Amino acid sequence: MTLSRILPTVVFLALAFLLLLLAPWWVLMVVAFAYGCSRARVSPGFAFWPGLLVGALIYLLGALWYGGGGELPGMLGRVFSLGSAGGLYALTALVGGLSAGAFAMLGAYARAALRPAGVPEPRAY
Amino acid sequence: MTKPNKRPWLKFLLALSGALLLLAVLAVPLSFGESHLPALGCFLNPYEGALRSNDADYWDHDLDLPGLRAPVDVYYDARLVPHIYASSLADLYYVQGYVQAQHRLFQFDITARAAEGRLSEVLGERTRELDLVRRRIGGGRLADQIDSLWKQDAAAYEAVSRYAEGVNAYISQLRPVDYPIEYKLLDFAPEPWSPRSTALVAINMAYTLNFSQDDVANTRIRDRFGLAAYDFLFPQRTDDDAPIIPAGTPFSAEDTALLRAIRSYDDRLLPLVGDATPVRTGLEPSVKGIGSNNWVVGPTRTASGDPLLANDPHLSLTLPSIWFEGELHAEGLNVHGVSLPGVPGITIGFNEDCAWGVTNVGHDVLDWHEVVYTDAAKTRHETGAGTTAPVARRVERIKVRGAEDVVDSVLVTAYGPVVYTDTADARAGLAMDWLTLRQPSAGAIRAFLQLNTASTLQDFIAASQQYEWPAQNMVFANRAGDIALRISGTLPRELPRQGEFVRRVGEPALQGYLASDLNPIAANPPQGYLASANQITTAADYPYPYRGGFDHHRGRRINQLLGNTTGATVADMKRYQLDDYGLLAAETAPQLLALVDRRGLETRALGLLAALEPWRYEYSAEDFAPVIFEEWLAEVDRRTWDEFTPLQRDGAGLRPANWRLSRLLLEDPGSTWFDDQTTPVRENASAIVTAALVAVAPRVDSLNQIKGYAWADLNAPAVSHLTRMPAFSRTGLRIGGRAGALNAQTSTTGPSWRMIVDLSGPTHAEVVYPGGQSGRPGNPHYDDFVDVWAAGQYFAVRLHPREELEASAKTFTKVRFRP
Lengths: 125, 819
Prior knowledge:
The structure holds 2 protein chains of 2 kinds. By secondary structure, chain A is mainly α. Chain A has helices at about 5-20, 25-40, 45-65, 70-80, 85-115. Chain B contains 25 helices and 28 strands. In chain B, the strands form 7 sheets. An 11-stranded mixed sheet of chain B has the order 3-28-4-5-9-10-11-12-19-20-21. The longest helix of chain B has 28 residues, at about 90-115. Chains A and B meet through helix 3, helix 4 and helix 5 of A and helix 1 and helix 2 of B.
């Protein structure tokens, strides 16, 4: 995998992280959408996966940073019938991952829809 | 290689639909029946959601507070107890408000809402019924009246208004990301605080301590069994009483007009009409186990020759705790203790010169009046022979989360509001005459603020005379060696039995209130100690009538212990506060064992008897014998008082106390009360006791087969979060004690603040409460006292000169509040 393929995802990750520190939760979706739009050589279906990975990673690291070592994640895990802190972390990562993945895919579909007629649809790497 | 671009817009629209659906699921709060989930997108976002509610160090930095007049320093000790040093009382209460709000904001909010009848706005339909009742009672209107009274009292108003400003300074600095977790879970925002909100906190305490309403049950029982039986089953005085004010204590004043009226009073008892009321369940049952202990030991009985004072209020055990510990210094005020979050000053504590504590007096101050309307439209009601009064109406709109608003038209009579209108309720159509409503009080704040700076016995008396409700047995001790116990609060001026039963139209009205110098007080008694544990207030030589829900077991036990104590130490006081001895069990278990007919008993029942016989009546957490006794006694109680079952199925239920049963087993085992109403033969105590054992033996024996099962499992003490969410609560505590023991532990109530003050040398104390200073679940200080408390341990505290804290930078964390 070349740097040119990884770099947009790294930029996506960094931008999403910075904006999440400053803006509401839905900014992750906006950034993911932009990321999906920007990926000309990635099929919409495949754009989902880097989105999922980035979203899950950002949410999981954030949850570990703010909740790690404390008792609150475990308590919240029990509030949501997830059993433990691990359950809460998993749910948090899932929500982050799905949010980013879905909107990255949507961005890629939007780009595809706006592509002029006759221009072929990109395939996965 | 690329594929042809087929139907791109259709795919986009499908993806858009999916993404929007996901967005909607994450952006909108979800409801499942009465359960609500916050919008998960924000809630689970780690950068602004739930996990940001728990930054442990959010308080650990200097702050600018424009409302201050001079810098104020707060030193937090390792337990997160703030020691506040201000140059004026105005700044002191400002910062106290700020600091308490920092740690307990949600508790502030929910307490005020509960008193006002606004819980349903955030908790939904499950609290609608409670809100409806509280609105009809009029907690919000009462708070308005108290607020107006405070404005006429400069010292009290400065305290509550500056405190409120401090709370609001905190709220205004609070970003949504910093909200306590409960706000995020329930998806609402804090409201501004005001002196009125503080009044609501006080009203909430009146609901807890001053809201006994047995009139309807009393009336039913009297009408069903007759007055003689009623008096036998529910005596106000018993042979075993150990009054709070020792017999022979002189009363300094006299209400001659009332005494004359009492002597000439014709005791007219009229039956409640239409007593065949249907049933109703679940309406604000009174919380069992609410009560308290306090005592003072004078110099003649202590090892040091200086007084000792102990107090442990038995209240609902919650997280966060009902108490917040703190130390306050300003303008000659130096005080340490606990206060109710939302209220300035220290409620129970000590200063350099004295200490004080409280227990609930428990006199009945809530009466029910029959209401007879003169017309179908209910515009007027009868007040006596040929006299009427108008019925006022006020409309209450209750917002209910996730449901339509409830609009209620409240009828307000000359006696008070008609609180229950559902015809399935025995109290429907009756008017509530509650002292708390009749006499809006500004005095409680003033009394406690004066106690904070008290020194002499005269200071104590002057302060306690300011206090109005809920009436408290206040104990006092000072370094001069004085000890005292005063019944503090407004006491109704009543004729005999007035207010004991539902009051009929035309019955004599309340005579007002006793002058405060008629409140009983004992100071420096010859016995060398004074104690209160919610037993009857006075011996029969006190001439003014009153009644209440008294129990003498704890009072007798502490009098027994203190009466046998000389050279008392703090260690003795701890031992007494933690005493698990059950006096009721000591007097009843031998009777059960003597009366049970062992012939024909199966092996399991015999095994239980063998296990119970060596028991020494200690409700130890890991002992199984208390399980046998309690289960057996409960079954004997159920079978003995089977006549009461039909009267008990709604909110107006009442049964004779265990004391009555115990004495009946001892003194009259052939009593007709032991007859089982469902059998053709006539049972006696032996038959009931034996049948009860046979009935419970299989269940109790099966519990005994569970490895490690003991009293703590049956009693199941817990410290529950205010919202009752199990995840934020502490359950499974291995604690001994019982409601009737000095260590009065039930599943939901118990010693909410244990304090022992030693007035020898610089005043110092041993304290603990079941909770933690932080109200934020998951915070290291959320429940860090619970295990210490459960283990029967204490923290040593004393007043600290500021210089000492400055020199102890490693022990104390300093926060400077700058104007």
